[in-house]
Specification:
This protein is of the alpha/beta class and 253 residues long. Helix content is 33%, strand content 30%. It has eight helices and 15 strands. It starts with a strand and ends with a helix.
Length: 253
């Protein structure tokens, strides 16, 4: 089993590393001290299991998981200093966690359970549990995207994204005249975006509301939406109500 350790505290990483080295069937493929490095490592190394610190400065553990395509979410053992009452979300969704300071017996039990999740079916179930928890646990929407540009991994801020278009089973982020392919479906990505800042106007289009300059009615509650980058996008009747509600709220501000 290939394992990645993510924690901003060097002593915490060392504690996990020392314990894992006693397991002959485990290969430690890397360590990270911050969220962005964790995303890069997960994308490039595809570990079977990640020990993931929840509370990290800048990009916390939950945001790391939100930044990853759903189909490559690894199995996770969360590392946390949360108070006991705050651990209910992990337990409800049957996700494993280790409370700091880590107990040796609890650590061994968590690793034993992780071994049973190596097969594809169990990993898929784990990914579903993680996504459900992320959807229910927080109103913090994704603030950045991690995309590949050739051999490089690049961070794109959500606040810089002007519009998003469907590209087959994936999506394209349009930022300052450039496009970046993201391995997410439109439906899944829509759930990760702040609805106060992003508006879906068509099954193949999401726009950032702060970029809308003009709405021009066409017919049958369809509109031509002009953005600050000069692009124009036709809305569909299916999403007319959302667009009209946004327009009413914008008028009242």
């Amino acid at each position: 089993m290939r394992v990645l350790i993510v924690d901003d505290e060097p002593l915490a990483r060392r504690g996990v590393r020392v314990r894992l080295r006693k397991c002959v069937d485990i290969e430690i493929v890397g360590e990270c001290g911050d969220g962005l490095s964790a995303v890069e490592k997960i994308l490039s190394l595809s570990p079977d299991l990640v020990f993931l610190d929840v509370q990290m400065p800048g990009m916390d553990g939950f945001e790391v998981l939100r930044s990853l395509p759903a189909e490559i979410l690894p199995s996770v053992i969360f590392l946390t200093a949360y108070e006991q009452h705050a651990l209910r979300a992990f337990e409800v969704h049957a996700l494993d966690y280790l409370l700091k300071p880590v107990d040796d017996r609890r650590f061994s039990a968590a690793v034993d359970r992780a071994r049973k999740l190596v097969d594809l079916t169990s990993k898929t179930q784990m990914a579903e549990r993680i996504l459900k928890m992320l959807g229910q646990e927080s109103e913090q929407y994704v603030s950045r995207f991690v995309v590949r540009t050739g051999s490089r991994i690049q961070v794109v801020l959500a606040e810089d994204t002007e519009w998003i278009g469907a590209a087959g089973d994936y999506t394209e982020l349009h930022v300052h005249g450039r496009s970046h392919l993201l391995r997410e479906t439109m439906n899944f990505l829509e759930q990760k975006l702040d609805p106060a800042r992003f508006l879906r106007i068509h099954r193949s289009r999401i726009v950032r509301t702060g970029c809308i300059l003009e709405l021009r009615g066409i017919d049958n509650r369809e509109y031509l939406v002009k953005l600050s980058d000069g692009s124009e996008h036709r809305s569909s009747r299916s999403y007319a109500r959302r667009l009209e509600e946004w327009l009413d709220s914008a008028k009242s501000e």
